[in-house]
From TrEMBL, chains A, B:
It comes from Gemmobacter aquatilis. It is found in: Membrane. SUPFAM superfamilies: SpoIIaa-like. The keyword Cell membrane does not apply. Pfam families: STAS, Sulfate_transp. This is Sulfate permease, SulP family. Residues 450-563 form the STAS domain. CDD domains: STAS_SulP_like_sulfate_transporter (cd07042). The chain crosses the membrane at residues 21-42, 48-65, 72-92, 98-119, 131-153, 173-193, 214-234, 266-290, 302-320, 340-360, 367-384, 396-422. Keywords: Membrane, Transmembrane, Transmembrane helix.
């Protein structure tokens, strides 16, 4: 029971001090979330109030089902972009069908997440590698920023790829509104300045770090209030795009459209949004939990996110996930339990009830500026350089993810990244590193003859294969062994060192059986050494060990003692070994 | 030049003795190929002569480009079934569009194979594991046999899946022709008997093994001749389906239809036929080459198969590949060079020129019987049992391939098999085997504490992870280390034994950096031991080694000597070790 309702766990020990901390954190997150929820709804092509709706029920539900103490769920930039990409081909923006599809997307994502959680499939998120996630987030941030920049000039531009956006912007450029630009650009500059400088300035002026942080986070609210006042005071609403009429009142429960054809069309996007959202959620949740030595349950997080998305759909919202920046703010502000999320939901409900009339005159350019500043913090080109320095294949996966996302859209980008990283892994393991080894003088240790000063015995080939033996490399092993045989005519024994062999699958077993028979024909015995327990257990269930012409040794040292005792024992005494080598 | 034209290599040393052997093998293969080529063309839904055409140009071209000495290319059962499955949805059987699509399929397959060969992508075939191939061949054999059985009763049944076939057969059953059955069943019984018994009987009667083999292979020709004579003699051609008019003369070179929409539709089937055909070809070619200690060039085989398929298309044929049974016959009959293939092509050309009028009265039921007997030898249910005994995940991949092929068709089957075997591999490597190890008394060797009688030192956790560290298992390692830490409060050192770690990718590197920092916070040092050269080279390019709180040791023994010298040295002397343990 407690596993599926973690609230029963932390709720039991809930105290007044915790309440105070949670309330303060909720206040700060609410202030941050009001402009964000409106902005991300517009980014997804939806009416502004949908963002508010998606910030109430999901937060309440996550409080009941979530295991991460400081995670803040709600609308986020990347999921909003993916929602727009998924729904735009299906219906005209602004139509009831568009909203219906977005709601159905949240519902289906929720069902998928819930099912994955109940089936304990949390491990699937691991198949998206860090370089692919990093590249995807960077490219998404660029796409979002590129789509919002023209909004600073009052232009509404849609496009799922960078080329689309560039063409759309070029076409609309003549319609740019100077007066909108006079609002948008200063807001953008103000937000960049507050983000990079305000906290330091306030602290130099003697404010505490905490208060300075809160004031910095409140900067978007200041921008919203100031530009709304300006727009109202100067009567700009006819000349500058504004948010306009937002229906007041709390969301009314609705059911998503049950249209099988629609669900089929959104199945793949829903799966991708779920997976990407889950990866983002679990990353931030684990990072924050680790800071306080807490643990989260990855499978229960799937359940919690699933229920939150279903809740979002039923209350007329769109896909939600755990936001990175917002969760960090929640954590820094002192949130101790998921109750902070419930308090934020109450704050958002109050905003929905009482603030919406005040937002009529809010310029859309202000919201665009808040989005641009938020997403550009996600863009991390330095990761490309760091990854290239470490691994070319990881770099290739990251670069491909970025380029495909920019040129062909978010769904193609994440799919290509995952496929490429898996493909590169398979390709790499299909051509494993193979080392011929010899004994390190004075030890029982064996190392690569090409890298270390080691001793080998004549007529014996000790070969270490640095990969599990399985279908992608089964034939490779055969080729390498035959090559080695061709080079050493006087060979009598081949010892295959299996210290790095974690699995031998059926394909590789067939290859080993073939090799054993072929070596036998050539008068060469095949031995194995350092075979691991689980691998040995499996081999014992096949006829291979009976057919093996040689032996299976516990260690490579045992093998060499059995096959070439003089060389090996001499070499074990380093001094004698050196003398013996000098004498040869 | 010799790389792309292997004929320049073996042709240079071609002698008269070789010529004799190649001619005899060609004669035997031609006798076998005449009924097969007609039968497989009908199986693919094509006119009989298309099978003859596909047995001329491809064989000549393979002689020029192939590296396998005894491989016999031409129409084969599985590729014919896949052709029918690919083309049937696009055009009505018997129409010019159907033939055009089959020709285009051969052309596109040829281009794909050629491109893969020139790009040296032969390794891609390794991604189809042996269990998947075996399951696919078994299921294809069953599908083909199921489709041919009703033809014994004069019923023409088409269906891409087992359920389709069962429904179609049930519907047509009332139209069964008794007289056709009176031809089909005896032929079937005769062919089964010759395949299983004739060779032994002949050898008991004093014939040489070689001659008995040849006579056995000629049994289908005997059946063809006898039933054709019977059908002609009794004037059955109105009541029994016969092959009928076959246009005489050699094929006229044509170009395949260049219709972009068509090519798009057949792209995936062409890729699958290419891959499956290549895998079958390379398997038989390597098996036969190994028997004579010859080597083949897998990438050049792609080129050769590609050119052969383009040749087939241009001469009005359909996809060809290296046939398993036919190549074994060619090899057994003494074929020494690819020239045997050219001689077979000449034999088939002569048959096309002079034999076609004689085949008018050949009952189709006879051809169906030859197909059934041929494909049932491909069905190997024993492989399921053998694979289950060895590996459950390989068994799962094999069973899934069989079931999906039978229920959803050949393309779905092979795709599902490949996806599942890759998925299972990733899943398995996402949950690697992890062992806590201790020293084997009297040695420098370290083994799993759960399996061996070993010695450990207090405050030191030596943990061996039996898998490369990469994205699918990066988080798993973190979980296991944190678990181990929670269980051992007095811990001071963690040694990660990397003997089985063949790669550390960027995702795992991030995890290691996190772990290093977290262990540091807890006052625990992280050490590595037995890191392989290539892994160490990469780590040296990252900041990780500078941040590492512990050391990197060449061997686990070195690590333990440095961290717990008394325990380790005592243990190295087995007798003293036992005393020390008894004293504790």
């Amino acid at each position: 029971m407690q596993r599926y309702f973690p609230i029963l766990d932390w709720g039991r020990t809930y105290r007044r001090a915790t309440l105070g901390n949670d309330l303060l954190a909720a206040l700060i997150v609410t202030i941050m979330l009001i402009p964000q929820s409106l902005a991300y709804a517009l980014l997804a092509g939806l009416p502004a109030q949908v963002g508010l709706y998606a910030s109430i029920a999901p937060l309440l539900l996550y409080t009941v089902f979530g295991t991460a103490r400081a995670l803040a769920v709600g609308p986020v930039a990347v999921a909003s972009l993916m929602t727009a990409a998924a729904v735009a081909p299906l219906a005209a923006e602004g139509s009831a069908a568009y909203l219906g599809a977005a709601v159905a997307l949240a519902f289906l994502s929720g069902l998928l997440l819930l099912a994955m959680g109940l089936l304990r499939l949390g491990f699937m998120a691991n198949f998206i590698s860090h370089p692919v996630i990093s590249g995807f987030i960077t490219a998404s941030g660029l796409l979002i920023a590129a789509g919002q920049i023209p909004q600073l000039a009052g232009l509404s531009v849609r496009g799922e790829t960078l080329p689309d956006l560039v063409i759309a912007i070029t076409e609309k450029l003549p319609q740019a509104s100077l007066i909108t630009l006079l609002i948008g650009l200063p807001v953008l500059a103000f937000l960049f300045w507050t983000r990079s400088r305000l906290k330091g300035t306030l602290m130099r002026l003697g404010q505490s770090a905490k208060l300075a942080g809160v004031m910095t986070r409140a900067a978007p609210v200041v921008a919203v209030a100031a530009t709304t006042l300006a727009s109202w005071g100067f009567g700009l609403s006819g000349r500058v795009p504004v948010v306009g009429e937002i229906p007041g009142g709390l969301p009314v429960p609705v059911l998503p459209p049950f249209d099988l054809a629609l669900w089929k069309q959104i199945l793949v996007p829903a799966a991708l949004i779920s997976l990407v959202g889950y990866v983002e959620t679990i990353s931030v949740a684990q990072t924050l939990a680790a800071k306080r030595r807490q643990r989260i349950d990855p499978d229960q997080e799937l359940v919690a996110l699933g229920v939150a998305n279903i809740g979002s759909a039923v209350s007329g919202g769109f896909p939600v996930t755990g936001g990175f920046a917002r969760s960090v703010v929640n954590f820094d502000a002192g949130a101790e339990t998921p109750a902070a999320g419930a308090f934020t939901a109450i704050g958002m409900a109050l905003a929905t009830l009482f603030l919406t009339p005040l937002l009529f005159h809010l310029p859309k350019a202000t919201l665009a500026a808040t989005i641009i500043v938020a997403v550009l913090s996600l863009v991390d080109f330095g990761a490309l350089r760091r990854t290239l320095a470490y691994s070319r294949s990881d770099f290739a996966a990251m670069l491909a993810t970025i380029l495909v996302t920019l040129v062909a859209g978010v769904e193609a980008g994440i799919s290509a990244g995952v496929a490429l990283s898996i493909g590169l892994h398979l390709w790499r393991s299909s051509r494993p590193h193979v080392a011929v080894v010899g004994q390190v003088p004075g030890t029982e240790h064996f190392r690569n003859v090409a890298r270390h000063n080691v001793v080998t015995a004549p007529g014996i080939l000790s070969i270490r294969i640095d990969e599990s033996l399985y279908f992608p490399n089964a034939r490779f092993l055969e080729d390498r062994l035959l090559e080695a045989l061709a080079e050493q005519p006087g060979l009598r024994h081949v010892v295959l060192i299996c210290a790095a062999v974690n699995v031998i699958d059926s394909s590789a077993l067939e290859t080993l059986e073939d090799m054993n028979a072929r070596l036998k024909d050539g008068g060469v015995s095949l031995h194995l050494s350092e075979v691991k327990g689980p691998v040995m257990d499996k081999l014992a269930r096949s006829p291979f060990l009976h057919e093996l012409t040689g032996q299976v040794f516990l260690t490579q040292y045992d093998a060499m003692i059995a096959l070439a005792p003089e060389v090996t024992q001499t070499c074990h005494d380093a001094a004698r070994c050196e003398t013996a080598r000098a004498a040869r």
